[in-house]
Amino acid sequence: MSMSAYIIGGIYLYKTLRIVTNSIVSSVLSLSIYALNINIIYLQTTAMSESLFLCTLSAAIYYFMLAIQKKDNMYLIPAGLAVSAMCLVRYEALAILVASVVMVISYTWLQTRSYKKAESSTILYTTLACLGFAMWTIYLTIIFGDPLYWKNYYAGTPTEKLGAPIVESLSLIGAFWKYFTTVVWMNGLIPTLLALLAIPFAIYISIKQKSYYFMPVILSLAIFLFMMLTLMRNTPIDQPALTWANLLSPDTSYFLEFNIRYGLLMLPFITLLCSYLFISRFIIIKLAVFSLLLIQFYSYYHPSYSVLYQLPISVSINTTQGTPRDKALVAWLKQNYDHGLIMISALKHDPKMLQLGVNYKTFIHEGTGKYWRESRKDPQKYATWVIFDEYNKSDQVTKYVASSKNLDLYYNLIYDEDGMKVYKIKTKPEIEIKQ
After folding, report:
1. 314 near 254, Cβ under 8 Å?
2. Is the pLDDT of residue 372 over 50?
3. What percent of the chain has pLDDT over 90?
4. For 342, phi and psi rounded to 5 degrees?
5. N or C, which terminus of the chain has less Cβ within 10 Å?
């Protein structure tokens, strides 16, 4: 699904670029910012939601563009359905929903100068656009008994959310810089700077052509505002600082990150803004933009510098990601692990599981059903090894097993460094799992 969404989203984005640039070459060059982004290429191979979200966002922007180009508000119907689908994918869609309603009523009134036409178009669009959120609300009411379950969950403190790191609330400026940094790391320093440089071009062209195309283009800014507001409350994002030292270092992508992928939600916005540079009548500007983008694309596969944080590198099996104690544990395990099943919390230690380089069938974790449930009480039933971080309350092995008498009864403590503990069974597990 993610791969299909990546392709369909690219098609919608290309068709939107054709409307903006009226040029196949400029559209293809602009589309490359989206299509060749190494992070979206990685995420479209996973079961994450970003690829599908960008697909629905690109579809919505395209149909808004068609409504403006054709001066036909019937295109608001597929636009509304796209936004409705978007609301079933990620909560950031709520920002697009609200902003798009304002955009629709503003555009239709400016275009027709008729309150009744603006009202009818807005009611038509809003009814369809709110459908997904209404369905989600019904689902939450039935399953959780709370139509605002999502709000109550995300309004809680970070410690209430399983596995989320503890963060401090940010000021408005701090939240802006935090998310801007995330956008730079995920979309690339060069495309982001080019998008900022394109803003005056977009304004000039929109005024000169008396075009309303800028309205769907800037729609994604609602996501930026939404992320700022959530960062001011409690949304955790861990990432490298946006400094010259990190930009000039080839090792920045080895930094332990958390939720940095949120920056990719601005990728269509950056792509569309950069397209305005390709329709400049000055050939020197086009050549300069093309050359800079080539540098960006080259860096994806030859990262001598970190003009982009690469998720594929940060999760690579050939890296030792994390703090010094994480690295020490992985190094020790690679030297000493010989056989048997390992009980570990995937919630907190999934990078270590990958870096150890053994088959995932080796692990007993939160996703292994009855084996996990039974091992929480009697780890000796299946596990030869038990690994946990006694200082981390979100570590599920710490929560259920660390204080169990079975550890000392059936296991030997063979590694204990800075809270990281590894136990190995004294005797063979009671039951062997066929692998």
Report:
1. yes
2. yes
3. 67
4. -115, 125
5. C
Nearest to 100 by CA among 140, 71, 51, 67: 67
* Tens digit of each residue's pLDDT (9 = 90 or more) over 71-115: 999 999 999 999 999 999 999 999 999 999 999 999 999 988 899
What's the average model confidence in pLDDT over 124-136? 96
Q: In what order do the strands lie in the sheet with 385-389?
A: 363-364, 342-343, 385-389, 420-425, 411-417
Q: Which residues pair with 40 in a beta bridge?
A: none
Amino acid identity of residue 252, one-letter, is T
Tokens 């570590």, located at residue:
395
Mean pLDDT of the chain: 89
- What pTM, to 2 d.p., does this model score? 0.82
- What is the distance in angstroms between the CA of the first residue and the CA of the last residue of the chain? 29
Burial class (CB in 10 A: 0-12, 13-18, 19+), 349: buried
| pLDDT tens by residue, 197-239 | 999 989 988 888 888 999 999 999 999 999 999 998 778 899 9
Of all residues in the chain, what percent carry a pLDDT higher than 70?
92
Specify whether the CB–CB gap between 36 and 86 falls below 8 A.
no
**Side chain identity, residue 107:** Y
